[in-house]
Predict the structure.
Amino acid sequence: MKINDSHFHLDTSRSLKKSVDQLKRILDLNNIEKLLLISLKNEPWTYKDFCKEIDRLNGVYYVREIDPTENYKKVLNEIIASKASGIKLHPRLRNFNLKNKNIYKIIERCEKLNLDLVVICAFWDGEWNKYNLSENQYADLADTFQNQKFLWAHSGGHKILDFMFMARRRHNVFLDSSFTQNYFFSGSVFSDLIYSINSLPNKFIFGSDFENLDYKKTLNLLVNKLKKNGIENHTLEKFLHSNFNGLFHFNG
Ligand SMILES: [Zn+2]
């Protein structure tokens, strides 16, 4: 079984070098062909050092977080100058919503430059009201930038059916399964995930976010559970492997 993983972070409790070594082990041990690494702004190393280490690895792509509420122009220039595949927006951690005008300026530039991806955290944690974030803002962004691909990370959490329907109507949106798939490992949300993957088999992409878990064990548990609950082999292959390629131009 070949795996592509669309959501992974380096372990920030180790040095950059040790954390990258650990990533290499995970890639080898789990037959991971390609992986999307997410670099957040508060990691304990510079983005420059991060790029230097990661650019040496085969099959590892990355997006860098940009915070529209602070010095975004400088950060965007750094991202554009690097080999990043795109940007990551984290409304939940940085407390902004997607009506923010700077976000529209940032994505306009990404679209013009033909960057592969805009990844946006879409996990509903019960506090979206505090910064006026709402589901429709995700749809509005995707509708405004039709030539930009979006990856909605965590598929909306327990609001997965809402996000699945929004993705169904938008050719430029994909969903990653990370966190939601193991946080809600039993119960109705997992059934919704199964229903959603089967109903949009070309749009759901496996993302692990397994940094604090035993990767192999968690992946096996997940795959067994998906199979047992009615995900057929050809859909599973798309989810775990081939859909990932739809995110990228792969043109260097
Ligand atoms: Zn994450």
Observations:
- The pocket of zinc ion is lined by residues 7, 9, 38, 209 (CB under 6 Å).
